[in-house]
C-alpha cells in the first residue's frame, strides 16, 4: 500500500472534521447562551438529531446498494474497468439515494 498518498488524505479529512466539530460546538454554545425561548432551542436540537439519524440511514442504504452493484459486477465476471462497470456503480448509487429518500419520507416526522 502506498502510504505517501494515504497520509495527506487522512490529514485533510481529520482537519475538515475538526473544523466542523468546532463550528458546531460554537453554534450550540451561542444558541444556548441567547435569551431565546427554550422550546426553539429544543426543537432545533431535536431536528438536528433526526437529521443525523436520517444521514446514517441514507449512508447505510447507499452502501448496501453499492455492495449489490459490486456483487453484480463480480457475478458477471467483469474484470476490467469499462463504462459498463461505472454505469452499474453509478446506477447503484442513484438507486440507493432514491431508496433512502423514499424511506425517509415514510418515516414519522
Question: What keyword list fits this structure?
Answer:
109 residues, mainly alpha, 0% strand
Question: How do the helices and strands line up, and which of them pair or pack?
Answer:
Elements: H1 3-33, H2 38-76, H3 83-106
Helix pairs in contact: 2-3
In a nutshell, what does this entry contain?
This protein has two domains: 1-35; 51-109. Helix content is 86%, strand content 0%.
Write up this protein:
Helix 2 runs antiparallel to helix 3. The longest helix has 39 residues. The protein is 86% helix and 0% strand. It has three helices and no strands. The chain is flat, with a radius of gyration of 20 Å. It has two domains: 35 residues; 59 residues.
Helix content: over 70%
Q: What string gives the helices and strands in order?
A: HHH
- Number of distinct beta strands: 0
Which radius of gyration do the C-alpha atoms yield?
20 Å
Q: Per the principal axes of the C-alpha atoms, what is the gross shape?
A: flat
Mean pLDDT: 87
State the domain count: 2
Q: Note the gap between the termini.
A: 45 Å
Largest sheet features: none
Amino acid at each position: 500500500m502506498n502510504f505517501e498518498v494515504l497520509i495527506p488524505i487522512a490529514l485533510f479529512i481529520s482537519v475538515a472534521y475538526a473544523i466542523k466539530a468546532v463550528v458546531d460546538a460554537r453554534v450550540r454554545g451561542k444558541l444556548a447562551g441567547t435569551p431565546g425561548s427554550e422550546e426553539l432551542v429544543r426543537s432545533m436540537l431535536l431536528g438536528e438529531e433526526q437529521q443525523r439519524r436520517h444521514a446514517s440511514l441514507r449512508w447505510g442504504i447507499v452502501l448496501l446498494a453499492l455492495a449489490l452493484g459490486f456483487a453484480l459486477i463480480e457475478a458477471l465476471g467483469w474484470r476490467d474497468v469499462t463504462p459498463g462497470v461505472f454505469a452499474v456503480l453509478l446506477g447503484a448509487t442513484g438507486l440507493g439515494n432514491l431508496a433512502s429518500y423514499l424511506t425517509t419520507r415514510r418515516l414519522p416526522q
